[in-house]
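TODO from last week: model Peptidyl-tRNA hydrolase.
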Amino acid sequence: MYLIVGLGNIGKEYDGTRHNIGFETIDYVSEKKGIAVKKKEQNGLTGVYHEFGQKIMLVKPTTFMNNSGLCVAGLMNFYDIPIENLIVIYDDIDLAAGVVRIRKRGSAGTHNGMRSLIQHLGSPEFSRIRIGIGRPEMGSELVHFVLGRFAKSQFPIMEKAVIDAVAGVDYFIKDGIDLAMNRINGRKNTAVEQAEKTENDGNDGSDRK
C-alpha cells in the first residue's frame, strides 16, 4: 500500500493559498482517478484507488499544517505502511514558482509541516515532491506570503506544476523513486520559461540612458 500525502490547512479561508498547493495536488489526483478524499480517519481525510497493481491512499491531514505528522504517522502505523511507500507533496519557498523537484530524503528546511512529519516519523528518510512557490519580497513576512494567494499571472505556471507533480506520483508508484526523479527533475515548465523570458525582455537595458 502506498500513502500519497498533500500538506495544507483545512478551511475555505485557506483554499488557493500558496501553503495549500499540496492539498491542491491531492484534489487534482482524486479528480483524475475518479475518487473522493473524504473518509475521516487518523486526523485526516483519505480516499483509496487501485492502479499499477497497487492500493494507493490519498491523504489530506486535518490537523493544520504544524501537526501534519500526527495524521501521517497514525495512518502509517495503523495500515503498517513502510516508509519507502510514503511520498509527501508540499510547497517550497526555496524553489522558483512552478518548479517541481522530487527527492528521496532531506531536511524540513523552514517548512513546519515537514518538521512535524520528521518528528512524528522519527526519520527524514522518505520521498517528497517539492512544488516551488517562490520567495516573498524583501521585508515581507513569510507567514503572510505562504498564506497569500498566487497572482493571476502565475495560474498557468502553478497548474503545470500540479500536473507535473501528479505525473511524479504515478512514476513513483509504477517505477520507483529513482525513475520518478529522473523523469520529473529534468522537466522544464514552459510557463516558467515564458515568464522569465518576458521579464528579461522587459529588462534588456534598452531604456537605460
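Done. Confidence is low (pLDDT under 50) at residues 204-209.
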